[in-house]
Every structure is written in C-alpha cells, then in structure tokens.
Design a protein that fits this description.
It is built from 6 helices and 52 strands. By secondary structure, the chain is mainly beta. The chain has a single domain, classed as Maltoporin, Chain A. Strand 9 and strand 10 form a beta hairpin. The radius of gyration is 30 Å and the shape is globular. It starts with 5 loop residues before the first helix and ends with a strand.
Length: about 950
C-alpha cells in the first residue's frame, strides 16, 4: 500500500533478517507489576515512582485498580498533569495541549507504537479509547533518543494491561448509567476485563471490552466568523463621525441546539507466551468504533457586508436630511449597530455534524534476554483508521427560511442582539418570501423577538405558510490513515567504571493518509432553491415549532433577549421532498447526495531512524549523579499524490452566491525529503535520598500536518461583491525544530507525597504560517477568470467584467518563536485519609497575538496558564475525590470557520466529583459528577465583543457498580 525508497528498502531487508518486533516488555515496569495495589493512594504512589525514577522530566497517571482509571475520559485525566491542557468536544476532553503546544505537536503512542488516527491532521483524539482499557499514561516532557520523534510538546504513551503483569486469574468490570441534565437522558456504559495465565505462568490471555452510549444536548449561540475590511459602506463612529480604520463585520449569527448520540465500543485482546525464562512473545489487537451522530436545529441570520446599512435609535432608516443612515462601529472598528435587508437571509437549519470512525491496531513483540548483559526487543505493528464521508453528513445543512430585514447590535453582553423588522416588503426580492407579523410598526419600526410568547402564538412570528426552501448542503471529508512500523531495540548493561548501559536501535515507519472531499457544492445542486422561490410550498405538517426552553443559555449574558423558539424541520425528509418535487415539475430526477470531488489527495510519509543512547552513573561532591546522552538520526521521504480540477468559470446562483465551475481533473505527484539529527543529554543529581535535581537539553521536531502538504487549491468562498477566497497546501514544508532546555528540583518527603518545581524553555524554528496573497486563475484558452457579478450586467458575463481576484491562503515555513514557563506541583497524603494534589503552569512566549494588528500572520497558539486542585478522602470502604481544573484564555487558532481573524477561547474552569463505597472486598458502588457548576465554553474573535461560540454542555451524573475478582 505504500512506496518504499531504495534506502528504506535496503534497511528493511537488514532489519527483517534480524528477527521480528516491539518496545521493551512492559511487564518489567514496576507500575504494571504493582497494579494490584488499589485505591487513590496506590495510584498516586505508582505515578510518583515513575516521575522519581525516570532520567528525564516525566509525569504519569496510574489506574486505581484494574479497569478503574481516575477520570472517565483519558484527556480529562491528562489535564491533571502539570503543563497539560485540553480542548473539549461535546462536553468531554478530546485533544490536548502540552506546555503551550497544541494537539499536532504531541506524539501519542499506544504501548509504545504510533497508531493511525481518524483526525485529518496529526492530532490524536483521546475520546476514541475508553479509560477502562488503560493501565497508565506516561507524559514525556523531555526527549530521549530512544523515543519516536514528532513531539515538540511531549510524547505520551498510553499503556494497556498485559496478562503477565497481572499474573493468575483476574476478572473486573463495571456497569453504570450516565444521566445528562441537558438532554434529560440516561444511557448505559459497561466494561469488563478477564485475564489469566496458564502452564506455570508461561502463557497468558487477556480480553477487555468497553461499550458506552451517551446522549447529550449542546445549547449554543455561534457566529462563523468576523470579516475584516470586506466593503462595509461608509461606517461611522458612535459619536457620528467618519471612521477610516479597520472594519470588522459579522458573517452570521445563529442560535442552535445540537443533540448528540455518542456510541463507543473498544476491545483489546492480548496473548503472551514465554517459551523459556529469557523470551516473552506478545501479540495484541486494539479495536475502536466511535460514532458521534448529531441532529441540530438552529435559527439564524446571514449577513453580506456590502449590503450593510445603518438605523437610528428610533428604528428609522433615514436621517433628517433624507439620507440613508450609516452602520456604526466602536473604537476597535467592530460593527455594533447595523441594518440589512438586501442579501439577508433568516434561516431555520436542520444540521448534521456526524463523526463515524473505526480504527484497528495489531502488534507483535518479542522480548529476548540474550544474556545477563544484553536484551533485545523486536516489534512489528500495523494500524488503520477511517472516518466515513457518510454522504456529506460530516457537515450537512438543510435550510428553510425567509428573505428578511434585521437589525443587529453588539453591546457589553456576550450575546449580540438581533431584532426583526415588522411587516413584509415586496420590493426586497421579487418572488421571495419574508417573515411577517413581528410586533412593532409595520412600516419601519423594530421590535425584539418576545420569548414569553406561548408556542400557540409563535405562528404569528414564524409563519409556516411563508417559509421556503433555501440552501441544501452535504459536504465532508473521508479520512483513511494507515501506519506500519518495524522496530528493533537493544539494551546492553555494562555496570562498571560508571557505565550503566547502552541503548541502541532502529525503526522504519510508514504512514499513508488519504483525504477525499465529498460534497454537492461543486455542481451547484445545493443551490437549486437558493432564492426562496414561491414554489415549492413546504408542507406545514413537515414543520414544527421547536422550543429551546426558558433556560436556554440562561447563564450567558444577553440571553434574555434572544429567541428560544423557532421553526424546525426534518432535514432528511426535506431533502427527499425537494427531490420528489423537482422530478414532478421537471420530468427528471435530481439528487442532493454528495459526490466525490476531484480535489482529493494522499500523503505517503516514510521515516527511517536509528539511535544510540548511553547511561552513566557517578558521584559529584559525594552525591550520586546519573547522566544520559544520546543521538537519534532520521531521514524522511514524503510523496503527495492526487487530483486537481482547475477552476474554469464563475456563474451567478442567486442574489449573493456564485458557483465555481471546474474543468477536467488533472493528476499530480510531488515529493519532498529531509533529514534530522536529534541529540539529547540529561542529568539527575540525588542531593539527598529524597531531594533530586534534574537538567535536560535536547533537540526535537514535529512534522508538518499532513493536510497542509497537499498542493490542491480549494475554492472556499464565491460570494458576489469580491468576497472570493481559496486555500492551497505546500508539499515543500519542512518540520518544526525545537531546541529544548529543562531544569527542575523535586523533594520526595513521604509516601505518595512530594513537591516539585521546574523551568523549561523551547526555541522553535520553521513555524508554519498562513500567508495570504492575491491570486488569479488562467483558463484553458489562456484568458483570465472573470467575476460575472461585476461589469455592466451583474447577472451575466460581459466585456466589462473585472478579473476574479481570490485571496489565497498558503502555508509556508519562516517564523521562529521562544516559549518558556514554570511548572509547580505538590502532592500530599495525610494519615487521616485526606490528601490533595495541586499544580500550576505558567507559560509565556515572544510570539503572542496582538489583536490590533490584522496583518500579523503568526502567533504561538495554545499558550495558557493552568491550575489543578484535587482533594480526596480514602479510608476503609469509602473514598471520594473532588477535582477542579482552570485554564486561562488562549488562542486556539489563527483562523475562523468563515472569518479572517483568530479564534480565542476564554478562560474556563470545571469542577468534578467522584466517590465509591466498597460493599464487599470485591464489589463497590460508585458515583461521578461532571461539570458540577455547569460552566460554558466561550470562544471569540479578535476582540471581546467578537462572539464565535457560547456552548453549554450541562452537567452529567453517573451511578454504577464495579466488581473485581
């Protein structure tokens, strides 16, 4: 399935002749041998031992018992570690950031192996693996030559259980019900593990299974983005003066409720065989099926910047001189009061954002103790992952609505205010419908939507007789990922003259990721009814009034004036209705199904590496000192293949949108290669038996995201009035490179008790930045693509049409940045049964975002301070734990869904609780509470009043029983 370079083929031949596959056998890890020691203190003690005994800076989390991880989600557990923060999806952790470096900068391994990911980047989604299958998590913050490269932020190893680590017969499992307060649904979750060893512990079998269903409701207000300087006409200041600075205008404003059904099934099978005392053979399979099926209903307005106008406080559209009023901006240039009728859409959406994934990982390992001085390990693994296109339901929209008139206002509240004009205006668009009956003056007055109106009266405001079909979109990416690895590791033990050991090895890794675009946009089918035509009339019976409830986003400022009721419909039924209607009128069939697009691509990446690492011990001023120095050498070959259909024309679809027309698909095959030399050195000084000082320096790298290396040009926006955008990839991208330095001091003063303080600094080069450039397209006949919305006839091409100038976004290497920070941690266990864990991380950079500079193309994303506090009580049969996590504001991305500025996540904190009671020695009952104070996620753009998302995922409770025999 992959192409091998000549060098890689030659080395593979040598490696294959040496034996067969893995990393060092995990049964030698004390954390695994002691897994039978249960409870919070046992977990804390094992994690502390990993931290203390490691040569570099390593933090760990250990299971409290077989099948019992401290948190219900792996990412939620990782956020308890100093320097680790998470991004949430649907109210649970999905992606992680370590020391300010986001998901793509962290290498995630399972049992020492890279596994395929359904994510379209290099990021690993932690919600795909159930925590019940995991024995421990190790977070390596400093690099060593023995570890696979790729993690400028960290390398995280997820360890699953092994039968030889458990020894003998063991069965454990749990059953619980999860209650979601937002959805008011209770769903099941079951997990089980059975393990046994036979024939004097020379053969072992372990099988673990976990199945979870969860139904949740997300209450949301969102905007896809804020546009910068896109032609808002003649804005004025709040005092009435002329404004000449930057202007930021909203793309849209939606109120949305998303219903999610999450179903996750994980299975793990492990076989181990020890034919003699010196050889352990392990084979394992890890399977994950994780589906997120969604149904969302929303109500919103779409704005077109060149059509924005102003309005007076009295609702008048003209000033005393009879001139049109101008839109108003604040001191930053943000539109804070505006009115629009031409080109404005008020839509009721039926949406889907399905995520259907499946992954499998197979591994085979031989660990051979050749003699007392030499150990060899051979590991072979292969994994696949895929995310379905699902007929474009990864981003599906079925829209009904009205051409409308709306006043949009921004103030000190988080949520803006959109009020509707009263009465219909037949002059807006010929043949289109408009919302009718809003309270207020039927000529030019405004009135707020009145949320107190009972459902029976809503039809006065949202008349089902007037709603019409609008845009019908199916779109999404299918992702296929395949990773194959072969690795040989050796460990030679010297034990004389200060020399401890020499570790050496080689690894071949091949990854192939295929991204295929599916949609119905490319042929314009989605816009068959874009213009709200008089026909077809949507059957009233297929629409209904959705009531979001009086407490919809009630904790978000500004919610009291937003609508909580709107028209809703079944999106799938509406697709079918329009297809049937089209066939009855036109005598031919039409399908809104997504089709495979030609701008799809495949990235193949081969990496060959070899390493040598030496360990020494000695004394410094009568204090034991340990040192590790190593070198890893890698060569990487990248090949990008795919197809690209060149743009050949633009045609008018409706009053605001154009359709891009494409020519015949053309294939491409481009390549890139680079080498890396990655040294490392570390020192551990035992000042006393309990006081340890560390210092480490290394060089590490993170490879470019796979999707950014495709040369495909994707047309992203074709709006009339010059709003034309596109994106391209760059196969010549080089990896990020980082020079790292760490120093820390750790005091282990008691059982499961320690204090630590550390400082780190990373100097990173080759940061990828998205630069923008004006781009025109040459057609097959040598002419330049033109914009038919310009010229003498705005509805058809003519000789006066201007060139179509696209703003093209292209990634390039070129920026350097320094990131440094402090990490503080404390852990203490009292004799009374009480205890606590606390840590804080403070991160800084010389490349932070300046909101006032719209020309800034680079800033380090993910940087934020964080705090964790965990208090627990464990005595006899009872234990409970209260955990609080806080993450400060951070820049999540330098882009928005359909905007020009950054995405910033406001500070967020969450309080969780769990507890259990041992009914017998083997059976316990337990409870869990997530997000006790019902916090909401708030994302914004460049300034505080640039709302992007307010999302309330609610509070969750779980109750269950756990057994271990």
């Amino acid at each position: 399935m992959y192409k091998k370079s000549k060098l890689a083929s030659a080395v593979l031949t040598v490696l294959a002749a040496s034996a067969a596959p893995n990393l060092h056998a995990q049964e030698s890890d004390p954390a695994f041998e002691q897994i039978q020691v249960t409870g919070i203190r046992g977990s804390m003690s094992r994690a502390m031992d990993v931290k203390r005994d490691s040569s570099g800076v390593v933090d760990a989390i250990s299971a409290e018992d077989i099948g019992k991880f401290p948190d219900t989600n792996l990412a939620e557990s990782l956020q308890r570690i100093t320097g680790v923060s998470i991004d949430r999806s649907g109210g649970e952790g999905q992606l992680i950031t370590v020391r300010g470096f986001g998901p793509q900068f962290n290498t995630v391994l399972v049992n020492g192996r890279q596994i395929a990911s359904e994510n379209d980047s290099r990021a690993f989604s932690f919600d795909t693996i159930a925590s019940e299958l995991v024995s421990s998590l190790d977070v390596y913050k400093t690099s060593t030559a023995t570890m696979q490269s790729g993690g400028v932020g960290s390398t995280i190893n997820i360890n699953t259980a092994r039968p030889f680590a458990i020894r003998g017969f063991k069965v454990a499992g749990s059953v619980k019900g999860v209650y979601d307060e937002n959805s008011e649904e209770t769903t099941p979750q079951v997990s089980g593990l059975i393990s046994n060893t036979f024939n004097d512990d020379t053969f072992g079998v372990l099988f673990a299974l976990s199945h979870q269903q969860r139904k949740t409701r997300l209450n949301q207000a969102q905007m896809d983005g804020w546009l910068e300087n896109v032609g808002v006409p003649n804005p004025q200041t709040q005092s009435g003066g002329d404004w000449t600075g930057n202007v930021f205008s909203p793309r849209n404003y939606d109120h949305k409720v998303t219903f999610e059904e999450r179903t996750r099934t994980n299975a793990n099978l492990v076989l181990q065989y020890a034919p003699n005392d010196s050889v352990v053979i392990t084979g394992d399979v890890l399977y994950s099926d994780f589906d997120v099926e969604t149904d969302a209903t929303s109500y919103g307005h779409w704005f077109t910047a060149p059509n924005i106008q102003g309005v007076g406080d009295d609702g008048s559209l003209f000033d005393d001189n009879g001139d049109r009023r101008r839109p108003t901006v604040d001191a930053n240039g943000t539109i804070v009061d505006m009115y629009q009728e031409v080109g404005l859409a008020t839509d009721m959406h039926a949406k889907k954002f399905d995520r259907l994934t499946e992954s499998t990982s197979v591994g085979f390992n031989v660990d051979w103790e050749v003699n007392d001085d030499l150990n060899l390990s051979f590991d072979l693994s292969h994994s696949t992952a895929e995310r379905e296109a699902n007929n474009g339901r990864g981003n599906q929209l079925s829209l009904i609505g009205y051409a409308n008139r709306v006043r949009f206002q921004v103030d000190d509240n988080i949520l803006p205010y959109a009020s509707m004009f009263a009465g219909a205006n037949a002059n807006i668009y010929s043949g289109q419908q408009e919302i009718d009956g809003a309270i207020g003056n039927a000529t030019d007055g405004f009135a707020a939507y009145d949320p107190s109106i009972a459902p029976d009266g809503v039809s006065n405001h949202l008349d089902t007789a007037n709603s019409r079909a609008h845009v019908m979109l199916r779109r999404g990416w299918a992702v296929e990922d395949e990773v194959s690895q072969f690795r040989i590791d050796g460990d030679y033990f010297g034990g004389s003259n200060g020399f401890v050991s020499a570790k050496f090895g080689a690894q071949y890794s091949s990854q192939t990721k295929t991204l295929t675009r599916w949609d119905n946009e490319g042929v314009g089918i989605h816009c068959t009814y874009c213009g709200y035509p008089d026909l077809p009339e949507i059957p009233a019976a297929s629409q209904y009034i959705f009531d979001a409830g009086g407490d919809f986003l009630s904790d978000v400022s500004g919610s009291g004036r937003m609508p909580t009721q709107w028209l809703a419909h079944d999106g799938e039924a509406h697709f079918a209705f329009l297809e049937d209607y089209y066939a009855s009128v036109n005598g031919e069939s039409i399908s809104f199904d997504a089709v495979r697009r030609n701008n799809s691509f495949e990235v193949e990446e081969e990496t060959l590496s070899a390493y040598l690492e030496l360990e020494f011990e000695g004394e410094l001023a009568d204090m034991p000192i340990y040192s590790t120095t190593g070198l890893r050498v890698e060569t990487t070959d990248v090949t990008v293949t795919g197809t690209q259909a060149p743009i050949q024309g633009l045609t008018i679809l409706d009053q605001t949108e154009m359709l891009a027309q494409f020519g015949d698909a053309q294939g491409f095959d481009v390549g890139n290669d680079y080498d890396a030399i990655l040294p490392n050195i570390s020192f551990k000084l035992e000042i006393t038996d309990d006081l340890i000082a560390r210092m480490a320096a290394s060089k590490s790298l993170t490879r470019p995201t796979l999707e950014s290396m495709s040369p495909v040009t994707v047309i992203t926006t074709t709006r009339q009035g010059g709003d034309l955008t596109s994106t391209s990839g760059n196969p010549a991208l080089k990896p990020f490179e980082s020079d790292n330095f760490d120093i820390s001091l750790e005091w282990y003063y008691g059982e499961a008790s320690y204090l630590s303080a550390g400082y780190f600094k990373k100097n990173v080069s080759n940061f990828i930045v998205n630069s923008q450039e004006d781009r025109t397209f040459t057609l097959a006949d040598g002419s330049t693509l033109t914009d038919p919305s310009t010229g003498s006839d705005a509805g058809a091409p003519d000789a006066n049409d201007a060139e179509a100038v696209f703003t093209n976004t292209l990634p390039n290497n070129g920026e350097n940045a320094s990131v440094d920070g402090f990490e503080l941690a404390a852990q203490h266990s009292f004799d009374s049964g009480f205890g606590f864990m606390a840590n804080a991380t403070f991160v800084d950079s010389d490349a932070e975002l300046d909101p006032a500079n719209i020309n800034q193309v680079f800033a380090v994303t993910g940087l934020s301070d964080s705090l964790n506090l965990v208090a627990f009580y464990e005595s006899g049969p009872f234990q409970t734990r209260l955990a609080w996590n806080w993450r400060d504001e951070f820049v999540q991305s330098l882009t928005q869904v359909q905007g020009d500025g950054p995405t910033i996540v406001e500070a967020y904190h969450q309080l969780d609780i769990s507890g259990s009671y041992d009914v017998t020695e083997n059976v316990s009952i337990f409870f869990e509470g997530i997000n006790l104070t019902e916090e909401f996620v708030h994302k914004r753009g460049r300034y505080a009043n640039h709302l992007l998302l307010a999302e309330d995922s609610g509070r969750r409770w779980a109750f269950g029983v756990r057994g271990s025999f």
